[in-house]
C-alpha cells in the first residue's frame, strides 16, 4: 500500500519551505514588497524631511503588483520581453544621437554661449531635452551649424520615439492575435469533442 502511494523514484521532490520563501523574496513581486517595507521604515532612520518625501514616493512602486491581476498588463510585459532586442537597439540609437548632438553643440556653440554649452554636461542636458521633444527653451543654438545639429537631434528624437511605440504595439497585437487563435482552437476542440 505504501509503495503505491509514494512518488516514483525518478520524481522530483518538492522544494523545502525555506527554498520557496527565498524564491518568493527574490521574485519581482517579492522585491516590490521589500522596497515598500524598507520605504515604510525610512522615517525611523531619515531625519531630513525633503529626503523623506522623496523616499515616500517610492511607495507608488506597490502599484506594480496589480499587473499580475490584469491580462493586458501581462500581455504588454510579454510583448516587451519578446521585443527587448529591438527596444535595446532603439535605446542605443538614442544614446548615440544624444552623445553626438551634445558633442557637436559643445564644439560649435561652446565658445559662443559658454553659459549654455560651455561644458559637456550642459550640452548633454540640451541634447536630452531636444531628443525627447520637451524643449524648455533655456538653451538653443544660434549658429547655422548649431541649428542644423539641433534640427537633426529633434527629428531623430521624433523618429526614435515613434519606433519603440510601433515595436511595442506590433508585439502586443501579435500576442493578442496568438491568444485569439489559441482560444479559437480550444473552442474547436471542445465542439469536436461534443462539448458546447
Describe, in plain words, how this protein is organized in 3D.
By secondary structure, the protein is mostly helical. The chain has two domains: 2-68, no CATH class; 84-192, Helix Hairpins, CATH 1.10.287.70. It is built from nine helices and no strands. Helix 5 packs across helix 9 (144-192), helix 6 crosses helix 8 and helix 6 (84-109) packs antiparallel against helix 9 (144-192). The chain is flat and about 80 Å long.
Q: Low-confidence spans: pLDDT under 50, at least 5 residues?
A: none
| CATH T-level fold name of the largest domain | Helix Hairpins
Per CATH, the class of the largest domain reads Mainly Alpha
Number of domains: 2
> How much strand content do the residues show?
under 5%
CATH architecture of the largest domain: Orthogonal Bundle
Rg calculated over all Cα atoms: 27 Å
Distance between the termini: 41 Å
Features:
196 residues; mainly alpha; Helix Hairpins
Briefly summarize what is shown.
By secondary structure, this protein is mainly α. It contains nine helices and no strands.
Would you spell out the secondary-structure blueprint of this structure?
Layout: H1 2-5, H2 17-25, H3 28-41, H4 49-57, H5 71-82, H6 84-109, H7 114-117, H8 120-131, H9 144-192
